[in-house]
Amino acid sequence: xxxxxxxxxxxxxxxxxxxxxxxxxxxxxxxxxxxxxxxxxxxxxxxxxxxxxxxxxxxxxxxxxxxxxxxxxxxxxxxxxxxxxxxxxxxxxxxxxxxxxxxxxxxxxxxxxxxxxxxxxxxxxxxxxxxxxxxxxxxxxxxxxxxxxxxxxxxxxxxxxxxxxxxxxxxxxxxxxxxxxxxxxxxxxxxxxxxxxxxxxxxxxxxxxxxxxxxxxxxxxxxxxxxxxxxxxxxxxxxxxxxxxxxxxxxxxxxxxxxxxxxxxxxxxxxxxxxxxxxxxxxxxxxxxxxxxxxxxxxxxxxxxxxxxxxxxxxxxxxxxxxxxxxxxxxxxxxxxxxxxxxxxxxxxxxxxxxxxxxxxxxxxxxxxxxxxxxxxxxxxxxxxxxxxxxxxxxxx
Length: 397
Ligand code: FEO
Fold this sequence. Notes:
The chain has helices spanning about 55-60, 80-85, 85-90, 100-110, 180-195, 200-210, 230-240, 260-270, 290-300, 315-325, 345-355, 375-395; strands at about 5, 10, 15, 20, 25, 30-35, 35-40, 45, 70-75, 95-100, 120, 130, 135-140, 150-155, 160, 220, 245-255, 280-285, 300-305, 335-340, 360, 365-370. It is an alpha/beta fold. Helix 5 packs across helix 9, helix 8 (about 260-270) packs across helix 12 (about 375-395) and helix 10 (about 315-325) packs parallel to helix 11 (about 345-355). The relative contact order is 0.10. It has two domains: about 5-240, 4-Layer Sandwich (Metallo-beta-lactamase, Chain A); about 245-390, 3-Layer(aba) Sandwich (Rossmann fold). It is built from twelve helices and 22 strands. MU-OXO-diiron binds near residues 81, 164, 222 and 223. MU-OXO-diiron (FEO) binds next to helix 2.
């Protein structure tokens, strides 16, 4: 395995082939926790790995140097998949200086016992540490993805360590973007963005502006492959994702009890299926929240449907909307739909949440009693066409 990023800089992280649930994120292709070793006159470790893989991190560092000789341990992000093995490293190398932001120090102290003897150096944007020929330069990146996070940049190598930014959950023996299937990696990067940082789009936009002032040849995230050949592609994709740039894409997302809401969804899809518009029908219980959020990121129009259950929407639609609401997808329009019997509730409840999510509702909730009549299905087709036209209107501007 080629682990060398630049002369004196190596990947020393952990490949988690078998993880399939990363705090509810469905990691179909596993994950990596990337840590990097920078060797110059002084030696720095950039980030650690998720517990319980500290032993493997130590073994990887030992391939290049004596662990006891680390001078600096840079913690770009305090979340456990990045900083969770810090105590294992400090135990072997108590004299090393831990470099992080002030907020990061507070979080590291909260998560770890016996930090009283740890040597911290607090840094902020613009601060630098010389390792000899190489310099570590820091850029605070609040809310990418926690308030304490930062990027570390080595100007001499034009190399950016971007922790969660530009990451993908993808286990591979290959470390670089030009060694793997690019389409697959771009989709995993989009999935990562949608599920981890979509709600912080404005913060990431500011970070992209600040990072644009740096000369960058390589971006080394904390997850997935390192970008060295397709920087333009991933940076341009981020520019679109941070603003949820709408595409001519319609999603019809539904849950159903006795297939009436499903039939309504199918009719909406039929109506929306016009030239130039991508249309997808998603049955919640045959998908995952992770995949649904990824699809939602670029969709300009969304119909959300549920049968009525106990005077409200079905539970998996409730879970889906709770998840999506938290991620705050922007620039969406759509409507609610669903079937019911003697009472109402499913479509109305969805409509209420869509309003809270600031999704522009193009029509009142579409409803049917018991089973959709021909008239209801015609109405669904018309509403589907409305969604499709909407996506063409907003994407042609
Ligand atoms: Fe990779 Fe915010 O954790």
